Description:
The chain is built from eleven helices and eight strands. It has 268 residues and is an alpha/beta fold.
Amino acid sequence: MVKVRACQVELDVTVAGQGMPILLAHGFPLDHSMWDEQIGPLAARGQVITPDLRGFGGSQVIAGTATMEQMADDLNALLDTLAIDRPIVFCGLSMGGYVAFQFWRKYRSRLRALVLCDTRAVADTPEAASARLKLASSVLTEGTRGLAEAMVPKLFGPATLESQPGIVEAQREKVLAAPPEGVAAALRGLAARSDVTDYLPQIALPTLVIVGQDDAISPVDEMRGIAAAIAGAEFVSIPRAGHLSPLENPAAFNEAIEQFLARVERDR
Length: 268
Ligand code: MLT
């Protein structure tokens, strides 16, 4: 990992491989290591950039509200600092996908393609937003144990919960170790995020939509709807996987993304 100052914040980032830049943005409340099974295979195809988003992993924690727009600004500044001027493939999972939509909104000339994994276009309902704000307060006073208890079972499909306890425990440890100030700031940003459904038909980029077949947070039908709204988007559902499809079934996930990247490179 190297520390890079991007915008107003210091981010930890790994960069591996050469060629077409592929940026992987992780989900909440994890860090870049959720892409460990992708970095090697994708680095054989391009330059893989895997940051910790602000407030997570080794990146700087800034109290307050970390909006999806701010995280997109951070990544734009990160690319400037790394002197990456070729158009990138932006691959974001869940919160990383919300950031991908904002990156598209603000910096679309920097994009070559989008990979939207286990994410949503809709905003929080008022009830969900208010529950997130309450959770932000309790994380600040009590730490992330309650968040881990509530969230970890929802991150995985039944097959993973039954037969891959090591993966479940590793992510539980990540949630427990996540900095409370960073988690609270992201929760406020998640609660404030806007509905991007109306933008979907305007996305004119090669797009791959990937979802775990048993995703309980961004369900298959909702993700199929995102793919249907983006002209020409490809849709792949990953068997034996829930919300963290890249970790739960990396073989199927990597095959889908590698085939997509091969098409993107071929059609360049
Ligand atoms: C994530 O995985 O990033 C979260 O599930 C996003 C969310 O809670 O909306």
